[in-house]
Design brief:
Chain lengths: 345, 98
Amino acid sequence: MESSYITGSVATKAGAVPRISTTWSTRDVWSTIKVRWAIGRMKYKVNPGLYAIGNPDESARVFATCNFKLTFDLVRRALNGMNAWLLVLDTRGINVWCAAGKGTFSTSELVRQINSVSLGKVVNHHKIIVPQLGAVGVSAHEVKKQTGFSVIYGPVRADDIREFIQTGLKATPEMRNVEFPLWERMKLIPVELSYGGYYVLIVPALFFILAGLNPSGYSIILAFDDGIRACINLVTAYLTGLVIVPVLLPWIPFRRFSFKGLAIGWVATMILLFFHLLGQNFIEIASWFLMIGGLSSFLAMNFTGSSTFTSLSGVQKEMKTALPIQIGMAGLGIILWVASRFFTL
Amino acid sequence: MNGLIYLSNVVTLELDQAKCNGCRMCMVVCPHNVFSVDNRKAAIIHKDLCMECGACEINCPEHAISVRSGVGCAAGIINGILRGTEPTCDCGSTGNCC
């Protein structure tokens, strides 16, 4: 496990605590970029436990965070220049909000870590600052009851910690609210693109193979020509659902993500039609409207999982109608596309 | 929220004002400014902004709030349907998930 961020140790009544750097090495920057592309994302962890920032003493503040290294790096950088303790919970490498939703950033894990590092011996106060989004899994009054430590909910974003401290541990409404600005949405695109996995190779390959079918048998030249077109159209649907919808999210009309995806998918299909990429056969043109619309709609709907404002009840309501329609559109589209190999309209 | 509002009238959030002691914890933990507290009584002011994360429910010491919380994620719901469980974003040991 990488631990180049450990720069020494601090002695406490509960033993030595490793001290960590508050600046990023080149390797930290590089691995942040990689993890944004989903490379090694599920193994990007630090060891849980207590760490020291600067030269903390018994009265220094205690912050809690998760053991996803991306988060850990943001928090230690935000604490640069302070003397504080950082208690890292074992969330199996998942960020605070998702881990809290899954129950790994939880009351029981926080209590377990407070006890296991003997936090009551390390500090002479009974306060711990927990990121606000951890509240999904942590019950402040339960932690107090079980450990005597009072949970103070800090700001949502690590970058606001400094101001939070300067204003006497008061979070402004802006620090408490989760927005979803353009840059935040764009940071998710690389991971979104990795969503398709091997399907991104298999599905176009199948279209290449099937494109050779025609009434007089099989044609390699046709497979190549129509296969290329099919790939361009499929990639377009993939990009509209996973890139264009997230980027333009607030500006696309409709509240349902599936409608947003369908609308943008069809706009893109019109553009493809204009450039003659849907073929000359009306059966094939219809098949592309169905396939691109259905796929773009489905992929856009999946962005509900990355968004910061969709509710379970809402997504369930949306899916109840959208999913059968998407499957129907894709299925009918594929049938029509294969039929268009043999029939012309 | 600048256009980032999801569906209306679907959220399961409920508040029993009679139990509320005015501690303001719901206001503190809510990421979408759903609550206000006046005269030591909480009120739901922006119900449609609620994303059903459940932070208010578990941090309310008086158990005055209830919400059916879970992942508002289409992939998670499909996972749940396929496995016959509640919606879950545990995409398996190899999966890439949030």
